[in-house]
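Standup notes
- DV: blocked on the single-chain target, sequence here:
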Amino acid sequence: MLLEPAYDTGSTSSAQDDLVVEIHTDEGLTGIGESDVNPWIGRACIEAPGTHTMGLGLTEMLLGENPLDVERLWDKMYIGSAMNGRRGAVIHAMGAIDIALHDLRGKALGKPCYELLGGLRQPSITPYASLQPDVSSFDAYRESLLEWARKAKALGFRAAKLEVTPCGPYRHKGLDATHAQMTEAIGAVRSAVGRDFTLMVDVQYAFPDANTCLSAIRDWVDFDLFFIETPLPSDDLAGYARVATEQRIPIAAGEWLATRFEFLDLMDRGKVKVVQPDMGRVGGLTEGMRVCRLAEERNLTVVPHLWKTGISIAAALHMAIATPHCAFIEFLPAELCESALRKELVTSEPRMVDGVLPPPSLPGLGVELNRDALARFCEAARRIP
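- DV (later): unblocked, structure below
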């Protein structure tokens, strides 16, 4: 369990804490993974003992197993924890374990993870800069978005996603603004970065229903957006179907979903054009690749969500390299974020070269933990009552 020492309970950002899993073998190898779940809840899911065959603990199902048999172990954990799991926090915790197992397998076999996920399906992947200013007034938010978008372009990014969330349940730091102000902010950024720069917009469940959403975004088509992310509550599949089919901008969603089964509903009933499995929340690389295959069967685009550290960035990169219909991966630039966890937790994380991320060359995920930073974040978490 990790926590930034200076975490802010007024922020709507899970980049302030983390659940990191390390799996060790009797031959001295270690795999690492993480998941975007409350780390105290995730730890309980991993460590809780089981009392019957359909309510087993995740740890007890792995002890003594062959760590190279990753996909079978995912199925074993899913079935063995089914009475308590199937969705939600148990799957998110499984995701951290699964990523660590993929890292471990790659290290044991001396191969990057993507080679074991299907091989090199595209020569590189374009990251988009994910921009969420940490301020408490809308004017400051707008100006920060403009500044950060310009800086992202100057850093070599070819695309960026604007976290435009001054209203709705994700209101960052108590922001409060109208839909018209959201439109104005997006337009200002588009003017600033030009038409040769790809823009996405994440409104983080800002609209309560399809009618409100359709009214609010009717002028956004002029901004040439690659997608609008999570405009409605996750469970409003009928609303998603309306928004996805009654206007022209592609709709993206999926960051909170656990397992391919939830994604099947999102794709087939929600009619989204872009699916966004989060590497930890969906259930790890094993389940993420299953989602990618389902999306390919439906001619849908994959753009994985991530909001953690270089561990998730590396996992998403390996999945993307093995997925030809993955258009971008989310990338929280260390230079354009407030999260110390994001900036300091890992070493040798993927680096952008000429606007793209090349295939990793090191075995496994290709990242390692910064042990000094890890100790500091662990100590901060231990101070929580």
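- Follow-up: The longest strand covers residues 17-24.
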